[in-house]
Automatic annotation (TrEMBL):
The lineage of its organism: Bacteria, Pseudomonadati, Pseudomonadota, Gammaproteobacteria, Enterobacterales. Keywords: Transferase. CDD domains: GST_C_GTT1_like (cd03189), GST_N_GTT1_like (cd03046). Its EC number is 2.5.1.18. This is glutathione transferase. Belongs to the GST superfamily. It comes from the Bacteria. It holds the Pfam family GST_N. Residues 86-220 form the GST C-terminal domain. It catalyses: RX + glutathione = an S-substituted glutathione + a halide anion + H(+). InterPro entries: Glutathione-S-Trfase_C-like, Glutathione-S-Trfase_C_sf, Glutathione_S-Trfase, Glutathione_S-Trfase_N, GST_C, Thioredoxin-like_sf.
Length: 220
């Protein structure tokens, strides 16, 4: 039995969604973020880094979103629900699978960090300076970079209904979290085709089942 070590309000929601799309049985072990918003120490008993997502399957412990998604799709997609027969679509799917965490999410995490430099746990005497510094970094660098990525994604989705091309794939599952984060942490509102894609995935029955299992994502 697959066990998803699920941290609330985290990337592990994508793993639940994939398993619901594949209709593969699984169980959830739940973890709650601490006041610092970090994962609890208990997750280090599963994987040394103590991060989410992480799954256990048989005697395997698998971490990292992309690795988990590729593993589950490769092993359990017996009905070829998400597999792609077109070579170019497969290449696109693989690109966006790795782009999500390799290129886009680091910028969004940095934006989150710099947006909180005027808040606890920064010492109160330093908060005005921290807030000013954080705003400066966002305006001078991060927002411009994020806007470039938003336009890149929008242009792709204007030409293709899904990230791989004509077919829904694991790339859409992987891209769901950063685009949800873009909607709240980005340099502006989602552009029309990106917003339409997000609405489309949020209408899927498996998405709703995953939310029922793992809880709503609240990103800020």
């Amino acid at each position: 039995m697959i066990t998803v070590h699920h941290l609330n309000n985290s990337r592990s929601q994508r793993v639940l969604w994939l398993l619901e799309e594949l209709e593969v049985p699984y169980q959830i072990k739940r973890y709650q973020r601490e006041e610092s918003m970090l994962a609890p120490e208990a997750l280090k008993k599963v994987h040394p880094l103590g991060k989410s997502p992480v799954i256990t399957d048989e005697n395997r412990v698998i971490a990292e979103s992309g690795a988990i998604i590729e593993y589950l799709a490769g092993k359990y997609d017996h009905e070829y629900r998400l597999k792609l027969s077109d070579v170019d679509e497969e290449l696109q799917s693989r690109y966006w699978l790795h782009y999500a965490e390799g290129s886009l999410m680091p910028l969004l995490v940095m934006k989150l960090i710099f947006s909180r430099m005027g808040k606890p746990p920064v010492p109160w005497l330093l908060r005005p300076v921290g807030a000013a510094f954080g705003k400066g970094v966002q305006k001078g660098y991060l927002d411009k970079q994020i806007a470039t990525h938003q336009q890149f994604i929008e242009q792709h989705l204007a030409a293709h209904p899904w990230f791989a091309g004509q077919h829904f794939s694991i790339a859409d599952i992987q891209m769901s979290f950063p685009i949800q984060a873009l909607a709240t942490r980005g340099a502006g509102e989602l552009q029309p085709h990106t917003r339409g894609w997000l609405e489309k995935i949020q209408a899927r029955a498996a998405w709703h089942r995953a939310i029922a299992q793992g809880g709503e994502l609240t990103l800020s």
